[in-house]
Request: fold
Amino acid sequence: MRKTCAILGVVVFACGGCSAAAEPADPVLPQRPPATPLPDGPPPGDAPPADRVESEQSLAPLLPEGATPVGVAVAPEGGQRYVLDETRGLYELTEGGAVLRFDGQAARAADGSALQFTDVVAMGDQRFAITAVNEGFLLNLSTGSFWRYFCYLPPLAGPPAGVDVSTLSLSQQLQLQGVGVSQRTDSVGYDPASGRLYAQPQTFADGAETAVGAELFIFSAAGGEPETWESITDPTFNAGGMVLSESGRPLLGRGSQLFVQNADTGLSVFKDFGEPALDIDIAGMARDTDGTVLILDSRHMRLVNVSF
Reply:
């Protein structure tokens, strides 16, 4: 039996900035600059222990018909599970169904358009980082507030004074050339030890369906624009979910695999859940309270709890 209701009294603050300039007739793509190293993580050459499926939970009987789950989160205090729908908002899973804790259809971008959500991560104290196309938000369920918190598509009116343009992110360099751009990240992660947020956006030139670049951004606990970033050599790479390793390194999930990004060697496969066969397509990931990883499997609309 499905059970749904909406949170009341949500305060939505307008999303500003992050607008792009008009695209020139013949844009020139810049060369990617050297990346700033991230914390050391699992050695790409070392295979992790064998994985084990701890539990599975079908979402079809819990969520409303027509739901499109795009992210999963676990509250670090009590282990409550949450699922983010692409347009409807954030659901808390219960034994008998799902409760709509945040009505995403009540939120609007600065231009008044509806938001298309892409991923979610729990930050503790009923706070959640939620990504949408071009934007990053902070949802606080205890206060019912939702506002623009971090921007993975920082706007640029002109070259920053005293800054080497080659050190800017790809989207910023394109904006300086007058290229209209948009960005989408389907994965966001959180490090409770440092308060940092991680996002893995792809950059698209206006009107183009093929990405011109992919990057990994790090945001400080204060939010705002990224404090550092790494370029991903494969512009088509798009992680469906993200969790952090014990050393604080982002593990990027795509298809049935986990990847690590290294500034020197690029992307490497860290774990392949398809060996032995686990038929999944990662659309979201979250670290559970017992240290296992909760995977949102879009192929079968289910949650799979895995230890590895």
User: Anything to note?
Assistant: The CA atoms of residues 61 and 192 lie 32 Å apart. The longest strand covers residues 181-191. DSSP finds one helix and 21 strands in the chain.
